[in-house]
Amino acid sequence: MDLPRFLTLSDVADVLNVSAHQAYTLVRSGDLAAIRVGGRGEWRISEADLADFIARQYAEVRRDRVRDAVH
After folding, report:
1. What digits encode the pLDDT tens for the residues 21-57?
2. Inter-helix orientation angle 47-70/9-16, to 10°
3. Could you say which DSSP state residue 41 is in?
4. How confident is the model at residue 66 (pLDDT cuts 50, 70, 90)?
5. Region 6-70: CATH code
6. What residues have CB less than 8 Å from 7, skipping those under 6 apart?
7. Within a 10 A sphere around the Cβ of 35, how many other Cβ atoms?
8. Strands 35-37 and 42-46: what pairing?
9. How confident is the model at residue 1, as a pLDDT?
10. Selection from 12, 59, 58, 2 nearest residue 35 by Cα
11. Which of 23, 28, 62, 67 could make an S-S bridge to 13, C-beta 3.0–4.6 Å?
């Protein structure tokens, strides 16, 4: 059984080229799905959830471009 690989907020920040605080804000807002693990409640994001987030962002940009082209 293949289990998903989980990334830290720092990993996600590196992938998205944003600060760790910005990655945390995405998680806290619910825009980026995450779980809390361990005694300290560290955030973890699956690679699949990160890929889904990125795909949604691309789709949103495409929708905005279409909307702007119509107006």
Report:
1. 999 999 999 999 999 999 999 999 999 999 999 999 9
2. 40
3. T
4. confident
5. 1.10.1660.10
6. 15, 44, 45, 46, 47, 50
7. 13
8. antiparallel
9. 58
10. 12
11. 23
